[in-house]
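Appendix B. Chain record.
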Amino acid sequence: MRIGLFVTCLTDTMFPETGKAVVTLLERLGHQVEFPMGQSCCGQMHFNTGYRRDAVPMVRGFTAAFDGYEAIVTPSASCGAMVREYHSVLATESGDAALQRDVAEVAPRVQDLSTFLTGTLNLTDVGAHFPHRVTYHPTCHSLRMMHVGDAPLRLLRAVRGIDLVDLPDAETCCGFGGTFSVKNPDVSAAMCADKVAAIKQTGAEVVCAGDNSCLMHIGGALSRQRAGVTAISLAEILASTGEPA
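Structure tokens predicted for this chain:
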């Protein structure tokens, strides 16, 4: 199977260890992963703020970069949802019939890492070892748009040494929401405060999620409170073998 890594611009520039973890994990499972150098922003921020025409070239660039891959795997449910749900909308609005055909061919191949592992590869035990108390935050896009269900939790439960604890009000939004946190900072901060309080209530050492954007928001608040809780991507936990790097 030819697998392309859709790393996303946020992960590539701010959380590169997550992208490396995806490659490490999939290669450990016997798969070759390619990184298309032509990939760039998926256009989500432009789309969300009304710059829809400016996002069309990004849609065109995405389909060109990932053409030919049987599976396009991403550690970001948010960006994955943008491609799967809204690239077709932008392609239709552009009036470009060729782009519409390209998007219809490429976009459905985008998969969140967790559902790629549990669905396409039919795995839950990926050989991970992570001896820490962990709680999982299910991000809005992963639940409501990528429909990952309990795939991340099934993967986490199979990790050796992990002490996985439930997060109270887990499905409540953390308040990041991309440009929402910029346009409504007070509301966003209040929502994040509630999420952080719930995380602290679990006594977890680590909070993980399938979106680095949400982890950036939550992790920043945890850090400012000196809560002693680390925010780590799901991919990094699944790639961990418990051995020194």
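Further analysis of this model is presented in Appendix C.
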